[in-house]
Amino acid sequence: MSSPLPPPPPLPLSQSQGTRTLSSVSVSGFTRLCKGLSLILVAAHLLLNFFPPAINYLALIPARTIPFAWNLITAGYVEQTVHGVVISIVCLLFIGKLLEPVWGPREFLKFIFIVNTLTSACIFITAISLYYVTRQEIYLYTPLSGFHGVISGFLVSIKQIIPDQEIPFLKIKLKWLPSIALLCCIAMSFWIIEATTYLPTVIFGTYMSWIYLRYWQRKPETKHKGDPSEDFAFSTFFPEVLRPVIDPIASIFHRMLCGRSGASNDAEDYNLGSEPLPGSDPIEASRRRERGARALEERLANERLATSRSAGELQTNAPGIV
Fold first, then answer.
1. Crossing angle between the packed helical segments 148-161 and 105-134, to the nearest 10 degrees
2. 232 with 285: CB under 8 angstroms?
3. Banded pLDDT at 299 (limits 50, 70, 90)
4. Rounded to whole angstroms, how far apart are CA atoms 21 and 117?
5. CA pseudo-torsion sign 268, 269, 271, 276
6. Domain limits, the chain
7. Which terminus of the chain is more solvent-facing, meaning fewer CB atoms within 10 Å of its CB: N or C?
């Protein structure tokens, strides 16, 4: 009888970043918060199927938002189609498994709530504006809802935390995921009419999540807000050829949204006297990314170790080979 084979050793933590990307994430180990949010998405979809009039109270219908202001919050958790539920849950479980260990459950939930609410508010303002310009009531009474705005925000978060990792087999860096998703959504809207209802949510979800991560998210390790690094500037969402055109446009929105008059004011905001505040330079931004990648790496290594131990136990308990 041959002796049982020893369990395979766990992969070292020093392996290259390209091999510990999304392909390394196992199906097990989803967080309880993501599972709970998935149940909410399923429950909201089932509610629409068994009680269709509920869409008038839960989805974002600009003509009904006043006085039903709560639909600015509830609309983001209501998927009207089965494929929308499936895609949202899959993205939530797998991407949430990457982001929640880095941010923590509280910040993860805060990000979802803020991005969802701001996205709905922007869609409401846009729909009202389009109605006054075109006088077409379709902008007022079309029910708009879905979790895809938050999913777009998750892609922006991945761009911030692990931008240089690559998608297996495609050799595309993760920092381009938000741009690719937005480009695909725009292209689909030319051929599929239903895709046009998703486009505003994806656009505003991408931009509002960048605004939050760029200026508002508090960093516990630095006690300051935002990510002012050049690698996370708005123009980095576009190819380098377009960046000279995008930067002046982005500076306009920067002044409108943040009340800053230019790059010189940015330097003043992030400097105290002659010493830069922690987190305001590219070195600190690089350290944050390294910490995020290290946290993901350790989590994946623990999962692989648990899997190898289980395989070893099965081999030990299996009957021997004569």
1. 130
2. yes
3. low
4. 30
5. negative
6. 17-240+283-309
7. C
Section 264-275 average pLDDT:
40
What are the tens digits of pLDDT across the range 209-232?
999 998 888 876 666 788 888 888
Q: Is the pTM of this model over 0.85?
A: no
Q: What tokens were used for 214?
A: 């760029």
CA gap 198, 286 in Å, rounded:
34
Q: Which residues contact 288 (CB under 8 A, 6 or more apart)?
A: 161, 219, 221, 227, 279
DSSP annotation string for 76-137: GG---SHHHHHHHHHHHHHHHHHHHHHH-HHHHHHHHHHHHHHHHHHHHHHHHHHHHHH--T
Q: Which residues are registered as beta bridge partners of 60?
A: 144
pLDDT confidence of 259, banded at 50, 70, 90?
A: low
Residue 322: what pLDDT?
A: 42
Closest CA to 116 of 160, 70, 162: 70
* Inter-residue contact 29 to 49 (CB < 8 Å): no
Cα Rg, the chain, nearest whole Å: 23
CA distance 272 to 69: 41
Rounded to whole angstroms, the Cα distance separating 123 from 189 reads: 17
| CATH value of 17-240+283-309 in 2.30.30.40, 3.30.70.100, 3.40.50.300, 1.20.1540.10 | 1.20.1540.10
Taking only the tens place, the pLDDT of each residue in 156-165 is 999 998 888 8
Query: What is the rounded CA–CA span in Å between residue 287 and residue 290?
Result: 5
Under 8 Å between Cβ of 11 and 297 = no
Helix (H), strand (E), coil (C) string for 173-187: EHHHHHHHHHHHHHH
DSSP reduced 3-state for 62: coil
Contact by Cβ (8 Å): 95, 158: yes
